Automatic annotation (TrEMBL):
GO molecular function: protein phosphatase regulator activity
GO cellular component: protein phosphatase type 2A complex
InterPro entries: PP2A_PR55 (IPR000009), PP2A_PR55_CS (IPR018067), WD40/YVTN_repeat-like_dom_sf (IPR015943), WD40_repeat_dom_sf (IPR036322), WD40_rpt (IPR001680)
SUPFAM superfamilies, per the entry: WD40 repeat-like
Matches recorded under Pfam families: WD40
Record bears the keyword Translocase: no
Region (Disordered): 157-183
Similarity comment: Belongs to the phosphatase 2A regulatory subunit B family.
UniProt-recorded name of the protein: Serine/threonine-protein phosphatase 2A 55 kDa regulatory subunit B
């Protein structure tokens, strides 16, 4: 370390391979135990640091977890990755808290039941040590604040509340109205100096007065709903995405994308509307939408026709035109009855720096470069073995199943779902 010598730490050995275990619910299940539908996990989301994990279930509950293994080494998981330090073991998450986010509702105008299932969760920026997140079901979005509250315990009281005096009550002012006279105006002549008859001094009196003291501080996590964003979507919400400005977010359904301010729950701005004047002319719907991770004026949304549109909010208030269009050209002679169905994009995600967009359709996972709209830079076949069985999948509606996709924090790994409890990376 003298004379400017550089110290290089020896690289740690690779961690043991991950052992994957498929589970749709939390907790251990005994053989043959039936899984309740309300306990099935329906949404999952990491925050940007990777230190917090939020999950939602079909019962409308949100459960939060906190990463604990990084605390032993100091810094967040992102800091450890930056210095190329391997902790030699896999991440560990501890239960933090849970709360009921949504309840079942009924839309009386449309005679429609709105289930409590959590569809999407998105983390917002952390402020003053409090966690903020958005959660939504089919119709209503809620903004939650989760914060530690200190609970003080008081000791050294002069009167022991566990000891009964008189009829069991401690010294207090009585609120009984049967034993004291009242004035004409409804007041009591001794309202300020009345003492309950139940109070009695201990034998020998009180030897000394003790001031109450704070014996301990306990902390408890409290989840509070700060805002409720409702009555803005005629169709089921399929996406929510918070903006990099920390002030706004979008929500999308099949035909519209709305822009919200986090602090204003009774007003939203419609920025994308694909609903035709005549619904018989409808040819495609919005399937997913997401803000750019660093440019607050840019967002992307996908459609059921397999296209991705990049929108610049600076162009106009209603973004009825796109800045860029990403779609893959069909190979000559390859079109079939199922071509348009399997081309429908079910999910899109921006990469860490916003340079790439990851999309998932029924058969493939595609990676797009926003600077090259001629076609995807990479295509990954997810379950090509199903292509000969598309007719059977169409008959049992499995061809309309939707899968999500995601990128790792460093942008080097991709993941998506499949059948037979498989996760492809």
């Amino acid at each position: 370390m003298n004379g400017g010598d550089e110290v290089v730490a020896a690289p740690a050995g690779p961690p043991h391979p991950l052992e994957w275990k498929f589970s749709q619910v939390f907790g251990e299940r005994t053989a043959g135990e039936e899984v309740q539908e309300v306990d099935i996990i329906s949404a999952i989301e990491f925050d940007k640091s990777g230190d917090h994990l939020a999950t939602g279930d079909r019962g409308g509950r949100v459960v939060l977890f906190e990463r604990t293994d990084t605390k032993d080494h100091g810094g967040s998981s992102r800091d450890l990755e930056r210095v190329d330090y391997s902790i030699g073991r896999h991440p560990e998450f501890r239960y933090k808290t849970e709360f009921q986010s949504h309840e079942p509702e009924f839309d009386y105008l449309k005679s429609l039941e709105i289930e409590e299932k959590i569809n999407k969760i998105r983390w917002c920026q952390i402020a003053n040590g409090a966690l903020f997140l958005l959660s939504t079901n089919d119709k209503t979005i809620k903004f939650w604040k989760v914060q530690e509250k200190k609970v003080k315990k008081i000791s050294e009281m002069n009167v022991d509340p566990s000891k009964s005096m008189g009829n069991g009550s401690i010294a207090s002012s009585s609120n009984s109205s049967s034993s004291r006279p009242y004035l004409a105006n409804g007041g009591s002549p001794d309202r300020y100096n009345y003492i309950s008859n139940d109070f009695s001094f201990p034998p020998g009196g009180i030897p000394s007065l003790r001031l109450p003291m704070v014996s301990s501080h306990e902390t408890s996590l409290v989840a509070r709903c700060r805002r409720v964003y409702a009555h803005a979507h005629d169709y089921h919400i399929n996406s929510i995405s918070n903006n990099s400005d920390g002030e706004t977010f979008i929500s999308a359904d099949d035909l519209r994308i709305n822009l919200w301010n986090l602090e204003i729950s009774n007003q939203s701005f419609n920025i994308v509307d694909v609903k035709p004047a005549n619904m018989e002319d409808l040819t495609e719907v919005i399937t997913s939408a997401e803000f750019h991770p660093t440019h607050c004026n840019t967002l992307a949304y996908s459609s059921s026709k397999g296209s991705i549109r990049l929108v610049d909010l600076r162009q106009s208030a209603l973004c009825d035109s796109h800045a860029k269009l990403f779609e893959e050209q069909e190979a000559p002679g390859s079109r079939s009855f199922f071509t348009e169905i399997i081309a429908s994009i079910s999910d899109i995600k921006f990469g860490k720096d916003g340079r790439y967009i990851l999309s998932r359709d029924y058969m493939t996972l595609k990676l797009w470069d926003i600077n090259m709209d001629s076609g995807p830079v990479a295509t990954f076949q997810v379950h090509e073995y199903l292509r000969p069985k598309l007719c059977d999948l169409y008959e049992n509606d499995s061809i309309f199943d939707k899968f999500e996709c995601c990128l790792s924090g460093d942008g080097l790994r991709l993941a998506t779902g499949s059948y037979r409890s498989l996760i492809q990376t």
